[in-house]
């Protein structure tokens, strides 16, 4: 069931996100060409035609849908990884094709979006971290409920529950230790940022010295 849901959702997302909008955009482009041909006649105005085509394109509404899709795929992989390990491979393949389909969509379907600077991914970081914690709980529970595990404890389900809960707590502790030990910004990026800040300060000092000398 998980495999069917994951594969069909990926195929439908690719069709609905890129191919269907592109087909609709091609139809609109043909209508624009016909309208421009009736207005301008035999005159060739490629720049004006391109401008007219781009004004007819849809507006990119932001990254919410893209983040939501990645969040759902992350949930498929993390929440049920012990049930269907192949989900990780399918999601990686989907993300590879998603990169090209999104680039295609940006170039041929949507108007050119304006860049919005951001320091991080915002509330999505909390959502992904919460999902990863829930994933540890669900996978431990699924393993504990499996018939193979119950066969090891045929007479004492309480002991099985205690062992599963203990393993779950150990894994959560290990996760939080890794999150604390691994820095959010890699060391070489920190060094480059510090160097850029130092160069900026030095350039500002030289500029102030030159302005003082000229005055």
TrEMBL record:
Keywords of the record: Membrane, Transmembrane, Transmembrane helix
Topology term for the membrane: Multi-pass membrane protein
Keyword Transmembrane helix: yes
Record's keyword annotation contains Magnesium: no
Subcellular location: Membrane
A Pfam family that the UniProt record links to this protein: Anoctamin
Positions of transmembrane segments: 71-97, 118-145, 160-182
Domain Anoctamin transmembrane, first and last residues per copy: 2-195
Domain of life: Eukaryota
Entry-linked InterPro entries: Anoctamin (IPR007632), Anoctamin_TM (IPR049452)
UniProt record similarity statement: Belongs to the anoctamin family.
PANTHER family for this protein: ANOCTAMIN (PTHR12308), ANOCTAMIN-10 (PTHR12308:SF40)
Protein name as catalogued: Anoctamin
Annotated source species: Cirrhinus molitorella
